[in-house]
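Reminder: ligand-aware prediction takes two inputs, not one.
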Amino acid sequence: MIERMTHLKNGAAVWLRPIRPEDAPGLIDLYGRLSSETVYQRFFAPAGSLSWARAYVFATVDYDDRFAIVAERGDAEPPRLIGVARYERAQTAAALGEIALVVEDRWQRLGLGTLLLDEILAEAAAHGIRELRADVLSHNRPMLHLLAQRTEIIRRTTDNGITEIHLRRRAG
Ligand SMILES: CC(C)(COP(=O)(O)OP(=O)(O)OC[C@H]1O[C@@H](n2cnc3c(N)ncnc32)[C@H](O)[C@@H]1OP(=O)(O)O)[C@@H](O)C(=O)NCCC(=O)NCCS
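Here is what comes back for the chain with coenzyme A:
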């Protein structure tokens, strides 16, 4: 992935780039700014604080089996992370992976989730992952809407309030 600057619907400049280990503190800060609902939608667990150990694991990827893209505000000093998308290849099947994304509450509905999703799907495809799975809370309309709009849904099953979606990147 090539680092690039883009603009959201409100005109704000945002950098999209691969995550690096030095982003661990930025991830902790981002997590601390998320509403409890957003944390729950992303992690299916109540908000707490993100530990250093977990942040380091999230920030340290091998850019092949595990990849994460961060969105960083272009005009903030020091720079601030406002969104993250990641994929992880399945251990059992090289062409299968799982994706997850989150956008900081006050930056939602500005097109960033769409940008991050498109980027992470392109990156996964570039690394041979043809099918992706996303676990989404069944009442999470924004994410369900986003996936339906931007991807080819292969199948979806719902169990215990969690919808498991298998999807492909749309051709073209
Ligand atoms: C899902 C999420 C990533 C979307 O990010 P975003 O930056 O708001 O996405 P976009 O601005 O690109 O919007 C994508 C679509 O979702 C719709 N949408 C976004 N928020 C919405 C809301 N609260 N209610 C209804 N639709 C919504 C938008 O209208 C848009 O559709 P459109 O292009 O037809 O208008 C964000 O809401 C989020 O971080 N949620 C919490 C974490 C999460 O749910 N992760 C998914 C589990 S892995």
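The pocket of coenzyme A is lined by residues 38, 41-42, 100-103, 108-114, 134, 136, 140-143, 145-146, 149 (CB under 6 Å). The chain has a mean pLDDT of 95. We will return to this case in the review session.
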